[in-house]
Amino acid sequence: MFLILAFSQPINAYEVPAGSINTAEDVPGDMIYYFELAGNAFDICPEVLEAIAYHESRFFPDSKNGQCYGVMQINVKVHKKRILKYGWTEEDMLDPLKNIIVAADLLKELYDEYEDNGPVLAIYSGNYSAVREYEKSGVLCNYANAILDKSYELEELHKKHEVKDGK
User: What's the pTM?
Assistant: First the structure.
């Protein structure tokens, strides 16, 4: 309910509150706020969202690959109901904030069901056979490994890892 109320006004995807610009070269400063906002709203690590966007689109908001749109490459046919839940359209998925919110909503649902990065990230990438393999062997698919590696790197850039023993 919070998000529906919070985003009931039109969103200008390029208005970023003062002081929220990130200096990490991997994530565009105008999007860092969106990842933080969606991550906090859906209880998802913002760097996981950033890593997915990096992998899926290199942060290009107007990316299209068939039915997959935007920074998070949301499949507008598969997730039509999820998009409509917010009162948005397919074309709204080219707005970075709206796209990230829909992705975070999907990821929250997957984390609530699976509680584990392995199946969540495999399903996000559409690799359902990787879920069965992970459940059987505990081995993460390449996509999940890439996302987790990148999210760790981004956490370091954002200085979210504790420094121990002076290192």
Answer: 0.81
